[in-house]
Amino acid sequence: MVATLDTKGHETAYLARVIEQWGRETLTIDVGTSNRRGRSEPDGNDARVAAPAELLRQIAASAREEVKELLRSGAIDAVVGIAGGKGSAVFGEVVSDLPYGFPKLLVSSARPALLAELALHNDIILYPTLVDLFGINAFTERVLCNAGRAIAAMRYVPARERRERKTVAITAFGVTTPAANRCVDRLAEAGIDAIVFPANGAGGRKMEQLVSAGEFDAVLDLTTTELADEIVGGTASAGPDRLKAASHRLIPQLIAPGAVDMVNFGPASSVPAEFTGRQFYSHTPFTTLMRTTVSENERIGRLTAERLSQAKAPALVLWPAKGVSDYDRDGGIFRNPEADRAWFDAVRRHLPRSISARELDCHINDPEFAEAAASWIVEQLTPGGSSRADV
């Protein structure tokens, strides 16, 4: 249990009793700030209490190391946090190094925006209390009972150190789903497992983290739309580490421009005023898409090439000449061959000669595109298969 005992002591004790009633033992790590001091002594004995933000970082770092050591020793197989706003931010840091799939449950009264931010970075199970945590009452009792029973039923089962089958990471979006489905099927026929990540910002960030952790044998990066959001300023950016992990891990990767024709925003009212007059499409009442321009696609293509240029393992760029999303096809609302071509031309200009870029005369969701992409990945992962990047 990770809790701010200075403000959530009663709730923590109650939650511990619930968990123990269901046959689990508990160990509590206090991440509260009371009675803690961070000191800096630049001038002899002139000690100063650390600033609140600095103190929180110190507490989080210390607790993170303690939790990691408990995991290494086999002492824990689940973690639950109980906190308000600051404590929730600390909890996110504390569990940041725990493996994907390790049960992480946070009972929190923090504002929804903070909880949404935590969900972008980790597979935390979030339990918003909706009422503030001020002791045990008829409302908080229900929340804590449910949370206690839930975490008591969760146990971490470590992944096998050696997988029996090769595993490939794939990126997908709603507008590239047909291609992703065909790639998954084609890989399955070859005895290769595929794990699909939504290219919505959080999905791409998590994929990069898991690739860095050695979870995958190859990456089929079908949908690189998150780079469009990074360049233009949309809501689905995966951050500056996108399109880097496979190169660092020296595993094969295939890159395609899935959905780089669009930038993501929330409801129409949330679109920044600077984009007034641009081409938009209301994908859902909560998602507004903006068509990328020629110049934006050139910048996205250049960024793609710059990041891919670090690859030392086999790598291939595959470009569909007839469109990069369901909205970017003949008669589609985002069809713009000139903008699409700007991406591909920029990639070719800035890629090193060791990495090939191929054009296919089809749409990204046509069966032949998925066949070409998946077949290249299969070739790289098949014993005795070609290691050339231009296959």
Automatic annotation (TrEMBL):
InterPro entries: Tobamovirus_resist_UPF0261, UPF0261, UPF0261_C, UPF0261_N. Gene3D superfamilies: Uncharacterised protein family UPF0261, NC domain, Uncharacterised protein family UPF0261, NN domain. It holds the Pfam family UPF0261. Residues 2-155, 165-378 form the UPF0261 domain. PANTHER family: UPF0261 DOMAIN PROTEIN (AFU_ORTHOLOGUE AFUA_1G10120). This is Tm-1-like ATP-binding domain-containing protein. The lineage of its organism: Bacteria, Pseudomonadati, Pseudomonadota, Alphaproteobacteria, Hyphomicrobiales.
